[in-house]
Amino acid sequence: MKKGFASDNNSGVLPAVFKAMEAANNGHVLGYGNDPFTQKAISLFKERFGEDTEVFFVFNGTGANVLGLSSITQSFHSIICAETAHIQEDECGAPEKFTGCKLIPIEPVHGKITPEAVLPHLKGFEFEHHSQPRVISISQVTEMGTVYKPEEVQALAELAHRNGMYLHMDGARIANAAVSLGLDFRKFTRDCGVDVLSFGGTKNGMMMGEAVLFFNPELSRLTKYIRKQSTQLYSKMRFVGAQFVAYFENDLWKEPATQANKMAKLLESEVTKIPQIRITEPVEANGIFAEIPRKLIEPLQKEFFFYIWNEQTSEVRWMCSFDTTEEEIMSFTKLIKKLLYLKT
Amino acid sequence: MKKGFASDNNSGVLPAVFKAMEAANNGHVLGYGNDPFTQKAISLFKERFGEDTEVFFVFNGTGANVLGLSSITQSFHSIICAETAHIQEDECGAPEKFTGCKLIPIEPVHGKITPEAVLPHLKGFEFEHHSQPRVISISQVTEMGTVYKPEEVQALAELAHRNGMYLHMDGARIANAAVSLGLDFRKFTRDCGVDVLSFGGTKNGMMMGEAVLFFNPELSRLTKYIRKQSTQLYSKMRFVGAQFVAYFENDLWKEPATQANKMAKLLESEVTKIPQIRITEPVEANGIFAEIPRKLIEPLQKEFFFYIWNEQTSEVRWMCSFDTTEEEIMSFTKLIKKLLYLKT
Amino acid sequence: MKKGFASDNNSGVLPAVFKAMEAANNGHVLGYGNDPFTQKAISLFKERFGEDTEVFFVFNGTGANVLGLSSITQSFHSIICAETAHIQEDECGAPEKFTGCKLIPIEPVHGKITPEAVLPHLKGFEFEHHSQPRVISISQVTEMGTVYKPEEVQALAELAHRNGMYLHMDGARIANAAVSLGLDFRKFTRDCGVDVLSFGGTKNGMMMGEAVLFFNPELSRLTKYIRKQSTQLYSKMRFVGAQFVAYFENDLWKEPATQANKMAKLLESEVTKIPQIRITEPVEANGIFAEIPRKLIEPLQKEFFFYIWNEQTSEVRWMCSFDTTEEEIMSFTKLIKKLLYLKT
Amino acid sequence: MKKGFASDNNSGVLPAVFKAMEAANNGHVLGYGNDPFTQKAISLFKERFGEDTEVFFVFNGTGANVLGLSSITQSFHSIICAETAHIQEDECGAPEKFTGCKLIPIEPVHGKITPEAVLPHLKGFEFEHHSQPRVISISQVTEMGTVYKPEEVQALAELAHRNGMYLHMDGARIANAAVSLGLDFRKFTRDCGVDVLSFGGTKNGMMMGEAVLFFNPELSRLTKYIRKQSTQLYSKMRFVGAQFVAYFENDLWKEPATQANKMAKLLESEVTKIPQIRITEPVEANGIFAEIPRKLIEPLQKEFFFYIWNEQTSEVRWMCSFDTTEEEIMSFTKLIKKLLYLKT
């Protein structure tokens, strides 16, 4: 299949990550995380996020979100998130099914929610007829390709904590956020008051495997049971551990995220020159949203596959990946122009 | 406690209903619905709604909604309703907990939702990442005291059915709706395409007991198991059956609902005369919503208890009940005027 | 329907209980338990069980068990009970559905379980692959008509507590147990270490309504939300409160339970004289289990309905109720003898 | 870590499987299974099990069981299995949590259940108080290292189907069973009436990934939604697909399973010579269960780690893996003898 802009999970695995898995494929180790690779990976997370961070590896992003949210809720709680959040739109109701909680979707601005928008939903505390607000959940990078600034995260954390609630962050694209902000992971997560973090690797060149991080050990006291019961405990966990070890070594994660973000900016700057295209969201990481002439969609998709975001408005999503190249961006924009009969 | 305007469930039981329960308290009958009172009640429902209607009695309104919704959903479905719906705001997440489904709240206009507002949420069919839209749920009377017209119900039913979905109606105050519309129950439910109906009696003078009606027997094939598993199967069911028998005899239900609605209209007409009070929702059944001067609330509540609906806007809810009297309305409005130093 | 021996829930409501409900049917009171009847009933429970007892009223026995068990478990726990327990056999999986827990059924002896039988299942603690043992649940009276002695309850409580677990008691027929033991309720529940008790009234002459009692307030900190979410919060709760007030006044509960138990003993003594009948369980409360000639079953059921317990062994269950009379017992045994061509 | 006999999941990945993953790590493919590797793997399953087989890949064994069972049950059903079954003992209640069903454990003989043992639990059909029997679930290889013969599978399937139920097979070690029986996979699964099969690969040399197979397409009509909602949908599914393609090519799976089974038989024949050791279960695949002198356990574990199965009886489990060697078996038995002061 020709490379396109469908999703950053259409790409494969970073060679260094693959090599690390191969090196881990050697003899016997105990299962379910009691192996040196997993233990090493956990210690690398602790280095980055603080020694009292609790780390649980799972298979995938939905699993990570479900595990994190289940650990900090009871079924009569509610979880407040953006209408566009992955947990609201793209997990087929896994959070409701597993936690039993109500999700309260809020209309976001450029994929982000604000304390002002959350506030009206912080009601009914102690009133048994009403699902009890318990979690504010945000995505970093958001599903609209934007990035919360540290002070924005902090404001939401403070609002949550003032109300006895927690701040959960879905960091499926956290590497792209770190690169975009130019900050260490910790600076815009734990240091801003995030309580539970889904730390994703798959979309930035790992094969599979995400980590759920708890910055208050009390919150994860029962998480190991929840992980098993939620089907997310991996027997040969060394193969996730080894990936994360490689991922952090020499900050391996930085280069692919940088490349993906850079390609998105390049694409942005190229299509900005095309008057028939309107970029709809700030381009702050590796995704671009744009309204394009409807007639463009089909012929473009044939050469570079991508998804339509909004049929009504003819809005599309273009995701750049760690292996997206400058040549591809240029060919793509050249094709757009050609299809529009622009001089190229 | 002095009568007030807190809720129509603060009132007691209609004497005729009580007498019927007493008459049913005689000797042995089989449990769990295999008794003549329950069977008679079922036949009375069938008379009103059609012989192929399937009828399941439960204890209360939340139980009725949970049973009806569970019967027509799987956990990966979604249920679309007004932001103000009882199932969204007032059941502490019982629908999510029991069905596993996602609830999608829509901003209503005067408590009602329209096909136009529902339409953008009918998406992602067959796309496994997205909770599958399955049910549109409306309340009749709505939680804002308004009443869907038959053609409004029908338009939503048609939208649902066109998309392979069902229309669920929470009829906790269905008697008030029937009186308001001047229509037989069937005319604005089954005949308009409602698939599943929570038929409430408690708020209109019964002691406890609601019925879940299915207008397509296929939908309720497994409902008896769900009722038991959801804790809503009543052993001495004759005491619900007997109530409904009395409720339908000589259309007993009509008078209390008529009185409650009438009192609400009277209250409306009285407070409309007071310039400091702004009625916020059309008064179509037995509830009134009004923004009133903040300083009025506490002294008024002392004499006639009621609930604040919206702290921010100083909006209150006044519910009339079957036993609300003209004298009470007049004393209440007199007190308002007195508190406002109006001439009374 | 002619009275029979099918179930103690086939009987109606004690006149004094009915009268109390009627007296409560007067004017307005707040809903959901904030009424004087409910508050009075709670105080009567506290008198009997200790001032720090937490009391939650629900509609029925399955609701009571689900609420009690949900309050003290998380979904990765297990609940150990007799194979014959109501929660295992007769609630259509409501405990699993609502708690998410695993139920571990143990083969009982005469309906009872012992520490010795429970012990082998107390394993896998801290081992995340294994459902974590959390609750031992017993029924008092058991489903086989037997009664745990205080020291038997205590032994199970001690075993539970030694292992960080709780003892739950399903007291659907607790009045019959109290009469059988000749002890105050507290003596064989809280004083023996029971942590959570479903206190039943329906089978002993109430219309509906059970209480869930917690003897450690910490355990019920979140119970009010669980009650609402489990559909068991009753709006017009005064009608349960009023019943319990009457039930405790002058120990009203004692007479009906005494009568039911007495009738069971009478029936036992009568059928013991019939050589073709073998009583299979000790008769300690109001139920009798007996193997009888198969040909007897149908003609007997025609006159006095009852249920077959075990088709294979031709074992039947005869339940006596508060309104079972000596005459009925004598007619019943006379009929048995007649059907067996014995001299009567 | 030195190789031992702890579990067949302590081993790594077969070189050919690893190589296939590496080959798949090339450019972009669509996510979530719409890639050529996954499609090819599906077609290989269809070749082996029939063209109308429906195939769903998941991450792990618990995920496979949960997905298969969820697809064929509703929450008021029950699932009958051996007391020793993985779904009963080793999944921390994941089946109950996700399906809501009751699991009914049966005492097995050598890990197997029989129609005779299942029969008494096939009761209460149509009786709404009782969890409705829906699934018989067996493990092949069983958790006790034994293998169901085709006629044993068939007898259970017939019993299930006669009662409107399904037969589910947990084939976490299905390759070891196939080798043990000398039969193609289909011969002892679909051809014997199995309806749903968890087809495991991880314990036989894959990195991760299991397949859930449905032999009646109607049963899996909604499975894709359940897979997503149960967190088991893998974005980069090609890396599971590629493994299975390699696994089936030239029957790659056969050699490792053969080796593991062979080593178990060798170990059996060696320890049989030691009078202080009593083998407790027939050795029919790659696991051995034996009662050994208690004092042996610790020193043996130091050199070759393994798990204690039953503390009381000093029974241990030794699992052989695809990479267990003859030398290891001989060193191990030599050490046993040495510890027992036997001549070696």
Q: Overview of this structure, please?
A:
- The structure is a homotetramer of 344-residue chains.
- Chain A is α/β, with parallel strands linked by helices and 344 residues long.
- Chain A folds into two domains: 237 residues, Type I PLP-dependent aspartate aminotransferase-like (Major domain) (Aspartate Aminotransferase, domain 2), CATH 3.40.640.10; 86 residues, Alpha-Beta Complex (Aspartate Aminotransferase, domain 1), CATH 3.90.1150.10.
- Helix content of chain A is 38%, strand content 16%.
- In chain A, the strands form two sheets. A seven-stranded mixed beta sheet of chain A has the order 1-7-6-5-4-2-3, with helices on both faces. The first copy, chain A, has a four-stranded antiparallel beta sheet with strand order 8-9-11-10, covered by helices on one side.
- In chain A, helix 7 links the parallel strand 4 and strand 5.
- In chain A, helix 11 runs parallel beside helix 13 and helix 12 crosses helix 13.
- The longest helix of chain A has 18 residues.
- The mean pLDDT of chain A is 97.
- The interface between A and D is large, with 53 and 53 residues.
